[in-house]
Amino acid sequence: MSRRLLALAALFFIPLFVAASSLAEAQTGDRAKARAHAKQAKAHFDAGDYARAAAEYQAAYDLDRRPSRIYNLAACHDRLGDKARALELYRKYLELDPNGQGAHVAAEAVAAIEAQLADEKRLKEAEAAEAQKRAEAAETQKRADAVEAQKRAEADRLARERERERRGETRVAGAFITPPPARPAAEVADERGEVKRRRPLWLSLAIAAVATGLALDFIPNSSTNGSFEATDMLPLGCYALGATFLAVWTF
Fold first, then answer.
1. pLDDT the model gives residue 81
2. Which of 21, 50, 137, 158 has an alpha carbon within 20 to 30 A of 182's alpha carbon?
3. pLDDT for the residue 140
């Protein structure tokens, strides 16, 4: 092989070797960092600080993409009570490593969480249905109370009307008018006696008025003189006055 070919080969393979060496070093460094994060995560997990443990396991997985990090991350979320997130991670771990060391435990965790979430869903649906029933019952009771109140109000109104009718009140245009208070019997008797005492006076006045009219009718040169004068109206006035006095005497 000529020197020129050797030089060309060196120019081609040396950069590849350098790049591979750099990549290997970078991967080695990432694995070391991932192991450090995983170690710190386990310490937090053992101490019960599952939130910080989850953060460290996520950092480790971002560096080396090992499925075991996903399993540990799922366990952290399971301990934190985030069942939906834990179920998602357990399923992802089973997809990445179905025959892994924690596959059996992960499968059991998936089944348990699915059953728990199903129970919680049924419980929420039952509580919602019960709340709906209580709301409907309350609305029904509210309508029944309104109807009962309306019936009581109508009964009270009818009772008041009967009481007013019993007291003699008169309904006019939808309203009751209270009659004037009854006058004492003695006062009524006195008034009637007074009317009786006054009746002879009215009769006397009626007779006097009629007599005056008759007298004026027969006065010579008055109503019989053949001419109409103002005095000719006096008899008629006397007759009318007498009729008035007679009516007052009669009623």
1. 93
2. 158
3. 92
Q: What is the pLDDT, as a whole number, of residue 16?
A: 45
The owner of tokens 């939130």 is: 51
Q: Please compute Rg for the chain using Cα positions.
A: 61
Residue type, 118: A
Find tokens 């006019």 and name the residue: 172
pTM of the shown model: 0.48
Encoding tokens for residue 123?
């419980």
Q: pLDDT by residue (tens digit) across 146-175?
A: 999 999 999 998 888 888 878 766 655 555
Residue 78 contacts residue 86 (beta carbons within 8 Å): yes
Contacts of the segment 134-140: beta carbons below 8 A, 24+ positions apart: none
Output the six-digit token pair for 186.
Answer: 């003695």
3-state secondary structure of 170: strand
- Rounded CA-CA distance 35/37 in Å is 5
Q: Which two tokens stand for residue 136?
A: 């409907």
Integer Cα distance of 45 and 154 in angstroms: 73
Angle at 243 between CA 241 and CA 245, to 5 degrees: 70
* 51 vs 238: CA distance, rounded Å: 125
Instruction: Name which of 78, 79, 73, 82 is nearest 48 in CA terms.
Output: 79
**Which residues are CB-neighbours of 210 under 8 A, at least 6 positions away?**
238, 239, 242
What does the alpha-carbon distance between residue 87 and residue 112 come to, in Å, rounded to a whole number?
A: 9
Percent of all residues in the chain with a pLDDT value above 70, rounded to a whole number: 68
| Local structure of residue 182 (DSSP, 8 states) | P
Q: How confident is the model at residue 226 (pLDDT cuts 50, 70, 90)?
A: low
